[in-house]
């Protein structure tokens, strides 16, 4: 039996964990997989993979050059180029709540294994694409695959991290976002620039393959459960919920009627969970700030190297942007998590921290784009990134601790849906459309960066919200305290 933070809620181990399992090993595996996910996102945004559109139809008086990379090979406009980013996000946001709902019945580790297998096949498909619509399809499929991981990984970390280091552990995991994107810039620039953009996708697929296999062959890891949910967990032990591979589960997919009923049941569950989440003011305000933040960061990560090359004539924008983002990402994310643990891991403190960091980051990044020379831009933008990335641990801490523990997968899934469907899904094509119209990357970047001030306003205002005792302490909130916790949210069977 484990006592959560020495407070009232006791947590118990309901099943035996596999022999390989320790919290530290689990953290390392999840961080490496998360890193690979974001390397892919950085790679497709790099000049080596994404490329540039040529002007082969130019007149003799112009400087003629051929296009390269995805944009050059498929002759994509900036808007169509931005659609590639949005296609990935559409797949991610559609599938995230589905995987979260399935996690109520099926084992989390098996679902992650399925997702990573799809990811491996989808990145291979990206490398084999023959045109715009084929790569749009495979980018959407990569998003579908990644949904299994983003919805289910963080609850494991929050569950097994030492209480005094919970935010720090989450920060290590979320540090893989900027670091992975930055490494993707470098990886895409080097591999795509020297071996071709298709090879970059082939190697990604190969690197993820061992983790996809591990997700299937390894014995599952199980989340802890609250003592009052132990009876519900016991029901799962008695096979009163369908298991992956059992006769009842298999028959679902053999009968059209059962398949339809299963889909309807999952859809109703998602709708019910979303309704409950939207009643939580802490969760809603957290999401509003996160949406504005992701609107900017998503477009930064996709168009960053292109902007650097256009405004500051960078010779190696992939490597330069990648290097500064790695530095700011690691330092900012880790320092942000450690700082919140030091200040006190409470929801109001986290909101104040988010508001201050996002405001300072917005001012620095906005000012950076006003300079016409490279050195002050790099210095100000790097420091601005440091403050922006310092928010990653605290914002996800609030997301996890604004809901009942059993609802963390669906809270993270809906977080993924909301920050993407209203954030970086529209931002990349929208900024591409603005740029196609005004043909000035500096102005486009300043317009984009100004949205960060909305994020600061939303987050800081969250510190004034009334917070339940369970939310302000290390305990989770009582989102569903009035309802009996649903056993199906506990891990399912192998």
Automatic annotation (TrEMBL):
One of its GO terms (cellular component) is membrane. It is found in: Membrane. Residues 26-467 form the Major facilitator superfamily (MFS) profile domain. It is a multi-pass membrane protein. Pfam families: MFS_1. The chain crosses the membrane at residues 82-99, 111-130, 136-157, 169-187, 199-217, 282-303, 319-339, 351-371, 377-398, 410-434, 446-467. It comes from the Eukaryota. Keywords: Membrane, Transmembrane, Transmembrane helix, Transport. InterPro entries: MFS (IPR011701), MFS_dom (IPR020846), MFS_spinster-like (IPR044770), MFS_trans_sf (IPR036259). Belongs to the major facilitator superfamily. Spinster (TC 2.A.1.49) family. This is Major facilitator superfamily (MFS) profile domain-containing protein. It comes from Riccia fluitans. The lineage of its organism: Eukaryota, Viridiplantae, Streptophyta, Embryophyta, Marchantiophyta.
